[in-house]
Amino acid sequence: MFDDFFIRAIVAGIGVAFVTGPLGCFVVWRRLSYFGDTLAHSALLGVTMAYSFEFNIAISVFIVSAVIALILIQLQRKTNLPGDALLGLLAHSSLAVGLVVIGFLTFIRFDIMGLLFGDILAVTVNDLIIIWVGGALILLVLKLIWKPLFASTVNYELAEAEGLNPDRAKAVFTILMAAIIAISIKMVGLLLITGMLIIPAAMARNVSDNPKKMVLFSIIGGLLSVIIGLFSSLEFNTASGPSIITASLILFVLSLLKIKQSIQLKN
Amino acid sequence: MGLNSNTLVKLKNAGYQQNNKWLVKGVSLEVEKGKIVTLIGPNGSGKSTTAKIALGIYKKIDGEVEKYTNKVGYVPQKVSIDWTLPLRVSDFMVLTESLKDDAIDEALSLTGVVHLKNKNLGNLSGGEFQRVLLARAISKKPDLLVLDEPVQGVDFTGEIALYELIKKISEQLNCGILLISHDLHTVMSATDHVVCLNGHVCCSGSPSDVAKNNEYKALFGEQAAQTLSIYEHKHDHIHSHEGEIKKN
Q: How far is A159 from chain B (nearest CA, A)?
């Protein structure tokens, strides 16, 4: 069944969408889109590490992204630089170092476009296992930290005062961000992963009046984006990542109509 | 005040500094089951800071905090809800503790806002939101309630009703309450112990003891001293933004 590359891509994409839906809501709620970008940029370094040491790409990307996230947390504590400057520093320097390392890896033929924008031809059965097993683990952990993470997203001091340990939840969430980037990089490409997290969640915000609904619509939006995006990628021979993101943009634009409608209803 | 099994939280010579400036220093107080302790003092005197020390929100503190319960309900002074988060009142009620639907209704009815249950939190008025905050804090039936100006923005009759509710809850649940308030006379009749802050504890004791204290009089004026000792008086003064009390 998984012999066909397209079936593999669809199954992989669906797995990714189930995880990016809920995580994307937290990225929107907690204003972490630039943080997601930074981790995604550092993923290039992770990929080069994987090629250099002949290691699994997803695991290598996960380790490098998690290390970058920890460095970021340390820098935030130890320096007086604003958060966005630190994010920019880490995003661009890890991207630059990754590209320099690629320059040295002359013995490998690199599909840089596939890396940046995703490549459905590259999804192997092995990747499917990583996406579905890894994705299930991410969702399980997210469910475990949901209450403290959500409560501290609404109000940090309430969560802390009422004994929910929000700092631990935040640290775990950072690790989950690194993990989702690691498992979705082949599908969407590292330049567009944050779009996969944010755009379906933003679409869901427009049509939801409570957090659970927003998570549900974010998942549905992600699934539709993947399916529409991959079919058009096959049809028009376009890169998979941009096709998926374009599909999600169309869904977002459609969701704006709903806002307009509810504003008219109010008046 | 000796330490006994009724103690819920105890501060020993506690203080907190931010950017090399002491927000509050040398605070000792104790909240026991069934008792209401009220913090009073001018703006910037460290009332909210003291509450956050007691709650364990501030961790790098001077002195000691001993907390004997994890069942805490907190009404912060300021809560801003982000518009990026769609949140109904019923979602907010279960933020830190899962509650059955009737428990949510019961708490919201007590503070008189059960009709707002399915409304979006962002669409509430200041007073309505304050009632929801209080309902959320009491709904989990806590051992310790920390209320930082819980009735701000609530209309006058509502204010009195909510203070009566707070007193009733402390009796019903036998929980300890740490209350911060600017409204001296409404609160004092219900308070067991008053701590008057001005960057440090300037005096503390029963309401009538505090009213006689000279430092208290210096801080709040003669008028306020009378307010404390005579509860049932007419509202013949106004409260300025600085927390001072001016005669009409």
A: 7
